[in-house]
Amino acid sequence: MRRLGEIRGRRLPFLRWSVLRMLFGMRKLTRDWQVGDGREEALAAHVLAHARAGDLDDVIRVIDDFCATRSIMINVGDEKGELLDRAVQRASPSLLLELGTYCGYSGLRMARVMPAGARLCSLEFSLANAEIARRIWDHAGIGDRLTVVVGMLGDGGATIDRLRSEFGFTEGAVDFVFVDHDKSAYLPDLECILEERWLHSGSVVVADNVKFPGAPEYRAYLQAAEGKNWRTIEHDTHVEYQSLLKDLVLESQYLGEH
C-alpha cells in the first residue's frame, strides 16, 4: 500500500497539507518553536493513546508513523536518527547534552542506545515543548534517565549556572552533544561549550540540519578546524521524513586544545 505523499517509493511529504500548514506558520515556528496548528500536542496525545506504555521501541515507532503519515514534525526523523544512534553507540557516553528537545524524539533515540547509567540533559526554549517531551518520555519509561531544562545557553548565564550546579557539567564532563535547535545559535553555543571547557579530547558533537535549513557558519568553523581541534565526518542525508531535499549531519570529534 502506498503511503500518502509517496510516489515510486520516494517520500514526498510536500504533497501533504501538514507541510503547507507548517510553511504558513513559519514565523510562529521560529519564534515559539511550535508550528501553531496543535500538532505537537496532538503527537503527545497520539503516543499516549497508541504506543505501549513502557515500550521505548514502540513509542519511537508510533512517532515515526505519525510524522510520516499525519503531520510532519521538526525532529531529527528516522533516517538521520539512525546516524545519531550510531554516533552515540560509538561514543559510549556517560553524560550527554542536547540543544533543542522539541517533543523528545531524539532523546528517545539516544536513550535507547546510550550505556546503562548514562544521563541526558536536554535544553528546550519552549516550556510547552518541554512538557510534551516529559510526558512522552514518562510514557516510554525513560523519564528517570532524561532531564529537560527550559532555557538556552545564550540567556546570560542562568542556564549554564543550572547545568553546573544541578547536573554535573564540570570541566571535561560532557561526552556527547546533539545540536538541533536555532541554526543561528549552532556556532555561538558550541563556542560557549568550549569556553566552559565541558568537552574532553574524544567528546563527540553531532549537528542536524547543517545543509537545510542550514548552519553555514558552524560548518565553516569546523572545516577550518579540521585536523587541528576537530575531526569531522559529513553525512549526506535527507531532510526528515522525505527523500527529496538533501541535508547534512555533521559528526565531529573534539581533539582538544592545541
Question: What's the arrangement of secondary structure elements?
Answer:
Blueprint: E1 6-7, E2 10-11, H1 17-24, H2 26-32, H3 39-50, H4 56-69, H5 77-91, E3 95-99, H6 105-113, E4 119-124, H7 127-140, E5 146-150, H8 158-167, E6 174-179, H9 186-196, E7 199-207, H10 210-214, H11 216-224, E8 230-238, E9 246-254
Parallel strand pairs: 3-4, 3-6, 4-5, 6-7
Antiparallel strand pairs: 1-2, 7-9, 8-9
Helix pairs in contact: 3-4, 3-7, 4-6, 5-6
Report on the structure:
The protein has helices at residues 17-24, 26-32, 39-50, 56-69, 77-91, 105-113, 127-140, 158-167, 186-196, 210-214, 216-224; strands spanning 6-7, 10-11, 95-99, 119-124, 146-150, 174-179, 199-207, 230-238, 246-254. It is α/β, with parallel strands linked by helices. The strands form two sheets. A seven-stranded mixed sheet has the order 5-4-3-6-7-9-8, sandwiched between helices. Helix 3 packs across helix 4 and helix 3 packs parallel to helix 7 (127-140). The termini are far apart.
Name some characteristics of this structure:
alpha/beta, 11 helices, disordered N terminus, single chain, 258 residues, 2 domains, two-stranded antiparallel sheet, Rossmann fold
Short description:
This protein has 258 residues and is α/β, with parallel strands linked by helices. The chain has helices at residues 17-24, 26-32, 39-50, 56-69, 77-91, 105-113, 127-140, 158-167, 186-196, 210-214, 216-224; strands at 6-7, 10-11, 95-99, 119-124, 146-150, 174-179, 199-207, 230-238, 246-254.
